[in-house]
Structures are given as C-alpha cells and as structure tokens.
Amino acid sequence: MQKVTLNNGVEMPILGFGVFQVPELAQCEQAVSDALEAGYRLIDTAAAYFNEEAVGAAIKKSGIPREELFITTKLWIQDAGYENAKKAFDVSLKKLGLDYLDLYLIHQPFNDYYGSWRAMEELYKEGRIRAIGVSNFYPDRLADLILNSEVVPAVNQVETHPFFQQKEAKKVMEEYGVQIESWGPFAEGQKNIFQNELLASIGAKYGKSVAQVILRWHIQRGVVAIPKSVHKERIIENLNVWDFTLSEEDLVSIATLDVGKSEIINHFTADTAKRLNGWKIHD
C-alpha cells in the first residue's frame, strides 16, 4: 500500500475505507471485515456515523496487529469545546475498543472548534492520538486555525472528486503542509459519475472501471481517498488500482470535468450551519 507522510512524520495509507452512511451495525462490521481482509489498513469513521462500535468489532475480530492499522474518527459539532471534546474522544475510543487513535478530526467548522483544537493538541502531546486534523475546513478557516494554533493540522478531509477538484484549496493545504483527504471520492454518485463518458473511455484503455480510474486520479494527485462500499466485490475492486498509471493526457482531460463547486453541500450558507448544528448525535 502506498503511503503519504504527514507533517509530523506519521505515515498514512493513501487509500482507505470509509463507512459514512452505513449505520446498520451488522452490515458495517461485515463491510469493514471485508475491507481489512482485502488489504485495507486505513479505516475512517466518525461519531456522527453511529457505527464506531461496528468498526471496533471488525478490528478486534480481524486479528491484525494494531500498529498495522490507521484508524480515524471525528468529533461532532455537538461535542465542540475543550471539555466536551475530551469527553467525546474518550467515548469514541471506548466504542472503537482502542487505546489510541491514529487520526482525530474536527468534523465540521462550526461551534467552538478552537476549544476542541486545544483539547486535541493536548491529547496529541499526551500520545493518545498520533495525528490531529480537521474536516470541511475551507481555505479561510484552515488558515485562520493554523495562524492561531500551536499544532498545524496534519490532514484536512474535504469533499473532492472529478466534479469538484478543490484546486485552490489544495494549494493552500500544500502551502501549510496539510495533507488533503477526499470524502465522497466518487461524488456520492452525482451527475451519473459511474457512466461518465470521459471517465469510461479512459477506463477502457486500461481495462479498468470508472471507480478505479477515479481512485487512481486521486492517488496521482497525492490525495488520500476513502471510498465506501458494502459490496465485497467492489471493496476488492477499489483496492485494485496499483497496476496502471493515468497519462498526463488523461489527467488534463479529467481536469475539464471540474465545475468548481459542490453539488452535495454548501458550507457557506446559513441553512447549512443551521442544519448541521441541529444534528444531535446524543441526548
């Protein structure tokens, strides 16, 4: 598995397995078990996915040495703030059945994320988290957090895919040494992406699926990707991307698909802030 080196020297697999929108615990546990068996070592979950217990169960049953795994979870808006973040971290760790996390992310740039970051900096210094980062932080908020914090985020997990390539945001992350990670690497199926003529024609050249082309494109851009599937054959297929390389011509062609904005979520509206702040994950 190819890896990237984070700004603190920690190595992270460039391709992992995500479990967003797999809240049914038995299904999630089976999917993670299938992913681990296939060879994935990066597993990405979140408190707001309601499936940390299932991820933990699959990890335990796998028998894979802990040091070979890279486990990520995230702090939800409801648990923002210094004291709340520390409590939420302990809850997530217990649900996962782990002694430490490889990566802990602030899930959304809302509520008291500065207080959360202070707590996470302490947990990081204590060795309870190997790396800390953020998710959904656009360039202005990312730069502001960096300029007013001691520890620079190791990762920023953002929506990025062929239709929303985040070129300018990626430049800002590179400026500060923050690793870009893609959620929704397949655009959550938007714009009929799996039947896209350009991506399909590129795939045909290499005997690869559209999904494999997209993942290879992420990898060649240096973007960590965490595709999700509950189908074993697709889980295996998504990992089979190491035996071909997209040409420069392919990359230039895929660049033309960028529409420069999200069609999944707009973090800059009041409605989004209201909706996400209203999403409660516990009493």
In short:
The protein has 283 residues and is α/β, with parallel strands linked by helices. It contains 11 helices and 10 strands.
Overall description:
The protein has 283 residues and is of the alpha/beta class. The protein has a single domain (3-277), classed as TIM Barrel, CATH 3.20.20. The chain has eleven helices and ten strands. It has helices at 25-38, 52-62, 82-96, 113-125, 139-147, 167-176, 197-206, 210-220, 232-239, 248-255, 270-277; strands at residues 3-5, 11-13, 17-18, 42-44, 70-75, 103-106, 132-135, 155-159, 179-183, 224-225. The strands form two sheets. It has an eight-stranded parallel β-sheet. It has a two-stranded antiparallel sheet with strand order 1-2. Helix 2 (52-62) links the parallel strand 4 (42-44) and strand 5. Helix 1 packs across helix 2 (52-62). The model has no long low-confidence stretch (mean pLDDT 97).
